[in-house]
User: Fold Putative pyrophosphorylase ModD from Heliobacterium mobile.
Amino acid sequence: MMYIAEETIEKLIREDVPYIDLTSLVVGIDHQEGVMRYSTREEAVLCGTEEAQRILLKLGCQVRSFVASGAIVQPGDTVLEAMGPAGRLHMAWKVTANLLEYCSGVATRTKRLIDLARMVNPHIQVVTTRKSVPGSKDISVKGMIAGGGLPHRLGLSETILVFRQHLNFIGGIEGLLMKLDDMKRRCCEKKILVEVESLDEALRLSAAGVDGIQFDKFSLEKLQQAVDEIRKINPQVTLIGTGGINEKNVAQYASTGIDVINTSSVFFGKPIDMAVTIDER
Assistant:
């Protein structure tokens, strides 16, 4: 279960229905009773039905049935059914369809990525970066979790990840190594992760006892070398691959022996194709 704030539901509605459905009103079907059914045209990991239900209820419709997020659905499967006045159903139609198609797309891509990675590295974890479509973070994260992934970082407040941009203020890796023991004492219940740009940086940090090392845009050859050498120095350090990893190359990166794939690719891609029918009751 993931909490989606009421303001997100309201925002999704307001984007498409600022006031009325003018078409239903002028056609004269506003108060006629109808039934709306959503089905998928392709195999997918479903996501967003709980939020679609909240939208439908808020707009004055009744939900007769829905399939929970995380379920694997097949072409032709009905995933949500609602009834109510035709004007209300039409208000909810595109808002809910867009939500279901986008969230299910994220969930499906996440599962596909995990399946490909775990074919060659059964214990690897796939996590996602903070780089999502602006304004869509909560529903994007829900889709990713429904597909079996986990967030790398949900924000800046609870994790420590040192980037080059931080190092520029403390004298680079040398400055960080001088501060490392003090950082560990101050944040003894937190893990300290560092993104590196070279094998030398990774080896020095591993020997110093950092908890995790993130390799950004390393070639497969350089990443494999780093994994092999670091495991000899500190087999407990968590090794994270990030930067340009997607369905086409995830298996190759997973085969290097890293512990974590960190990617934003699941947030960007084709939505799942959903069919929606609205008929008179």
Summary: The chain has two domains: 6-108+269-280, 114-267. The mean pLDDT is 96.
